[in-house]
Amino acid sequence: MTGIEGRRYRPGSPAPAVAATRLAVRHAVADLPPGALVLVACSGGPDSLALAAAAAFVAPRRALRAGLLTVDHGWDPASGGRAEAVAELGRALRLDPVEVLVAHSARSEGAARDARRAALLAAAERLGAAALLLGHTLDDQAETVLLRLARGSGARTLGAMAPRDGLLRRPLLGLRRDLARHACLAEGLEPWDDPTNADAVFARARVRHTLLPALEEQLGPGIAEALARSADLLRADAATLDALAGDAHARLTATASPGAGTVELAVDALGELPSALRTRVLRRVALELGASAAALRAEHIWAVEELVTRWRGQQPVPLPSGVTARRRGDRITVAGPGSTGPRPSPRRRLADRPETEEGMQVSHAGVSAPDFDDARPGEEDTAPGVPPQQAADIGEVLVTADEIAERIAALAAKVDADYAGRELLLVGVLKGAVMVMADLSRALRTPLTMEFMAVSSYGSATSSSGVVRILKDLDRSIEGRDVLVVEDIIDSGLTLSWLLKNLRSRNPASLEVLALFRKPEAITVDVDVRYVGFDIPSAFVVGYGLDYGEHYRTLPFVGTLTPEAIARGPRP
Ligand SMILES: O=P(O)(O)OC[C@H]1O[C@H](OP(=O)(O)OP(=O)(O)O)[C@H](O)[C@@H]1O
Ligand code: HPA
Questions:
Q1: Is the residue at 395 inside a domain?
Q2: Nearest CA to 519 among 501, 502, 533, 506?
Q3: Domain tRNA(Ile)-lysidine/2-thiocytidine synthase N-terminal spans what residues (predicted)?
Q4: Residue 16 shares a structural domain with residue 147
Q5: pTM tops 0.80, yes or no
Q6: Residues with CB under 6 A from ligand 1
């Protein structure tokens, strides 16, 4: 008798393919105690049929009981009869119990797999099984790796199927699919070939029949084995990283949460973790607060990670299932949908903000100032322009960098329309207006020249002295020119009121003002401002050119300082 690959084997001994499947099953159940029940999930296809036959042979010799489960998905009128035929085969193999499970599902590979798995696990539990054997082969593993690689997956996902996963065991994971078919043939078992396995509508069928053969043809044989090997290596790596992330998660969440359904993490501690652990900790926290595992994508976690590694005053990050993550000072707060702790305030997007005739309205998000530990200098956990210490001094971000950019573009369009056919002279009021001058001048299409004046009325205090000093005057005359004064902020209005009077006396053709921020509740003198970026609350703010004692100007957003930071005084 000739066996697979043309080898000869002795009459009376099993065909090599049969021997290989039996050996694989023997290894897979070696640890089970006598009397334990092993169930085989069998579709009637060659892999699971070979597995059922091998289990039927091995179980009694290991004093185990073996049964068979088959699932009817109800995809076509013949499916019930087919499932019954598989059950009949199981009985013929003397498997006991044998059950047909009905698990209707949508006609998609994923939906069928989920429904099948749920039905099988429920039955295995009900029957008190010690193991549920699945017929996945090395080829299934290779296909899974390729499919997941094409989606851009991490180590855990590329680790694909494990030989053991709770109740599930996959004895044939190291064997090729051909071998299972040979084992069926050698035992006189006629497998059912599921037509969906060849249906090019299904991605897996295309991988099986087109992609993998093409890869083997182009790159040489052994691709399936190589892909399965990669899965083994990545699974081991992922298991180690998951264990380390579990430790880090326990460490970082050891302190009390601010409320039920809320987890607070220290930016410092997260910043010290390598990215592979940080993202795993963040994912774990999101999942435990109720984010759907199926919907939670790497992009979500990266956005949360950027609150640590590239902090530039971003909005809270929405995650699936109503979970939100936000940074306040040196803490990341992740809140579940039903949290009772301090919820991330639902800051409105710029587009949602009411726009008055002149400016966008910005209000406090209504959050109390966070408590801060001393951030450590030199720590690279923030975006450019955001020294870590300064990041920890910010109480609330009122306007983000993106919102500023969007607003300046809109203001520039208005100015361009108003000054069509004319040449502008922009007068920047140093130093605070340096950022808005730079960005506005480059957003304008109107021909322009620039002049700067430096005045000061604040010094290192947080309220205006009312005494304005010219620190640097204009270099040229503005007589007859269309002048647009560019200011970062109008607070009391004292600086601008004084400046306008001063400039008007120099006889410009026209004199208008553009101020990126205005505090309507703080204005004490009447000043006429043609262009306003944002109306903000009257709290002292820093960032985007605005300083506290010359510091904080480089922050790309505008935010309030914590009371502690104000009391302590400016710091680099
Ligand atoms: O409306 P007010 O209450 O007068 O405040 C507005 C002025 O205060 C700031 O300048 P500051 O004196 O701080 O100097 P700086 O621009 O160099 O920071 C700001 O740049 C405005 O010019
Ligand atoms: O709120 C402010 N911050 C910084 N500088 C300022 N100058 C006027 N108001 C402010």
A1: no
A2: 533
A3: 38-209
A4: yes
A5: no
A6: 429-432, 456-458, 464, 487-496, 547
